[in-house]
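Narrative of accomplishments. A recurring question from our advisory board has been how the design workflow behaves on a single, concrete structure rather than in aggregate. To address it, we present the structure tokens for one chain from the evaluation set, followed by the sequence designed for it. No filtering or post-editing was applied between the two.
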């Protein structure tokens, strides 16, 4: 797979899907920069977990929706590792207000992190991908499947899918591939903390999943490893559903 010794920056890697992706890449021999926004303890726990794979790590805080912090983060990662080969845009926020309850703050919070964030990190990554690279955007099946209360969140992921396709075209001549993973229901702390009714909602999604179980962060991590590796060198601009067949 030709990943040993490469360097990946994974945003939002302190828990959930981001942590699963960081661990899968580390197991494949990739050195990992673990980005977090607020909880350094969780980020350091992920770092301890992946150091068993004899790779180099860096824990770094940055809000991906703030350009100055993104610029500083990339500079720090490059200083630590001497290069950057892979960017995983996983950092994201979500809430599910009904349309009559949503606020401007809800809109800007989700679009700033979920759409502006990947644009800013991609813009900065291009400066460091001197020999090409792989950008992996973590989208959501919510961009395709109607989810009650997800008018803003689903819109951010649909926008991220379009960002993926356009940037893949723009960056292809630089040998930079851009793809998106669309997870279905994945069992994470965030999913479990969504509030009243989440258990029944999860049961319904699992029942509608042909492979008959909930997704796990490591399931998404394996897809990310494939997209980061030379095995996918002819794939760019694609939306890959990792949902156990849920549509």
């Amino acid at each position: 797979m030709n990943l040993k010794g490469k360097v990946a920056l994974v945003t939002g890697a302190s828990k959930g899907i981001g942590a699963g992706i960081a661990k899968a890449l580390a197991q494949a021999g990739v050195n990992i920069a673990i980005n977090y926004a607020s909880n350094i303890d969780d980020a350091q726990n992920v770092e301890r977990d992946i150091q068993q794979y004899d790779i180099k790590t860096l824990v770094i805080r940055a809000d991906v929706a703030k350009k100055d912090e993104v610029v500083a983060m990339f500079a720090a990662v490059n200083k630590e590792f001497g290069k950057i080969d892979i960017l995983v845009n996983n950092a994201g926020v979500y809430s599910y207000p009904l349309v009559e309850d949503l606020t401007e703050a809800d809109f800007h919070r989700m679009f700033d992190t979920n759409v502006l964030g990947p644009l800013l990190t991609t813009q900065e990554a291009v400066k460091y991908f001197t020999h090409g690279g792989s950008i992996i955007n973590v989208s959501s099946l919510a961009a395709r499947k109607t989810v009650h209360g997800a008018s803003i969140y689903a819109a951010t992921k649909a926008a991220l899918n379009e960002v993926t396709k356009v940037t893949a075209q723009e960056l292809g001549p630089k040998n930079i591939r851009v793809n998106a993973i669309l997870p279905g229901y994945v069992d994470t702390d965030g999913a479990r903390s969504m509030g009243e009714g989440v258990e029944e909602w999860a049961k319904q999604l699992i029942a509608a999943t042909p492979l008959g179980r909930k997704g796990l962060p490591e399931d998404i991590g394996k897809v990310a490893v494939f997209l980061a590796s030379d095995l996918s060198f002819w794939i760019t601009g694609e939306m890959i559903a990792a949902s156990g067949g849920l549509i």
